[in-house]
Amino acid sequence: MPATEQVIPEQLSEAVFAAGWRTPEGRVLLEILNSIHESILIINADTRVCYVNDSYLKMFSIRREKIIGRHLVKFEPLARIHEVLKKGVPLTGDISHIHSAQMDVCADIVPLCQDGKTIGALALMKNMTELVRANRELEHFRTLSRHLQDELHSKDSLPPGFRNVLGHSKAFVGALQIAAKAAPSEASVCITGESGTGKEVVAEALHRSSGRAGGPLIKINCAAIPEPLLESELFGYEGGAFTGARSGGKPGKFELAKGGTLFLDEIGEMPLSMQVKLLRALQEREITRVGGTKPTKLDFRLITATNRDLEAMAAEGTFREDLFYRISVIPVALPPLRQRREDIGLYASYFLEELGRQYGRAYRISEEALDLLERYHWPGNVRELKNCMERAAVLTLGDTVSAEQLPAKLQREELAGSRSHSPGQRKLRELLDETERRAIENALRLCGNNRTQAMELLGISRRNFYQKLEKYQLN
């Protein structure tokens, strides 16, 4: 049946084309519809098919006589076209799957009206099967990418020496990833973070995962040794070097670390006079004992840790700038506990399990108590949490640690927090901006201010990342 000889109900033809289907003008309109590349379908108010163009026949591989005059429901295209007929409201970009043709189509459907009454509908359709399939594949790859991102930040991908380090938050595992990459090298690593964040634990993991794991790990707290004794502790001394010195002398920590790792904790507390000597020893890779004349070659890997901002101290002149660059080839910044609240429950359970073995009991923590722990800001970090759990374990009569056994300051902060964050006091946008800013600051800190690594860690585009740097004045 030619396109210009289709059965068109008179009431619909008058509504669509005032000139009529059988006039020369009407036939021209039919030819125009038939030449359109997209598939066109016209139905009347009873859902009978009045018209399809050649593109429709080709797309669905159907003959015209099989479809003209039949109810739409008989061959199930465009289920939502009934909605357009009923409401008289256009529908654009409707994607549906036509099972009989195993095809996905996108349709723009408009009602055909006359004198305020809907008398039919016209659908303009495109075959979207390949696009929908490609979109499904893209979503699959996005899911896979998210899975790989999770794997990247999973502790399963870490060397064995790091897997036992407690903590599974993304921020903390990100810091462990940086440390793990540095572990096989001989580069100096500086671990920064507030007191109680686990800097010594990470230093131990670095040593275990390095090529010097078979050698000793020598630790020294620079803040715990008086300044007059620090030099002899690090460099050692010969017999008779000073009053009270052993007759046979004593090797220093530098010598004891031979073939292994030297960990200088609280390096920011080292006096300037000692910083000069430490820098010279690192540059020349040799030392001379106090009171001695014979140099001793050094063979150790240096790891330092501090809770202070060494870069700011260097700018102020309270820490040598050249020493700062020497010891912080690989910076590893550990986030405070308040920035990885998902780890709080893990730590609490671990400490209670340890205490349970010590006291012969099986402790658990109530939901109310855990909620208080997760709301507290933990200025003392993991160390404070451990002390809190020990206190609670001692005070509890049963095996369940409840909110009553927690320090009163946790209760007070909860009350203060509920008052300061009352509904409507802060706008949601402000809270989101604050959270986003902290996330960017943490990423930059974790990546040692390497912006490329930070944007990859955050999973955002370069353009978006730099826009946010400007927005939060983090340039």
Fold and architecture overview:
This protein is α/β, with parallel strands linked by helices. 45% of the residues lie in helices and 17% in strands. It is built from 20 helices and 16 strands. The chain has a 5-stranded antiparallel sheet, sandwiched between helices. The chain has a 5-stranded parallel sheet with strand order 7-10-13-6-14. A two-stranded antiparallel sheet has the order 8-9. Strand 4 and strand 5 (117-127) form a beta hairpin. Helix 14 (344-359) packs across helix 16 and helix 18 (428-446) packs across helix 19 (451-458). The two termini are 71 Å apart. Residues 3-11, 13-20 and 415-426 have low confidence and may be disordered.
As a percent range, the share of helical residues equals 40-55%
Extract low-pLDDT stretches.
3-11, 13-20, 415-426
Taking all residues together, what is the mean pLDDT? 81
Largest sheet, strands/sense/barrel: 5 strands, antiparallel
- Gross morphology is elongated
Radius of gyration: 37 Å
Distance between the termini: 71 Å
Kindly state the number of beta strands. 16
Question: How many helices?
Answer: 20
Specify the structural class. alpha/beta
Strand content: 15-25%
Q: Strands of the largest sheet, in order across it?
A: 2-1-5-4-3
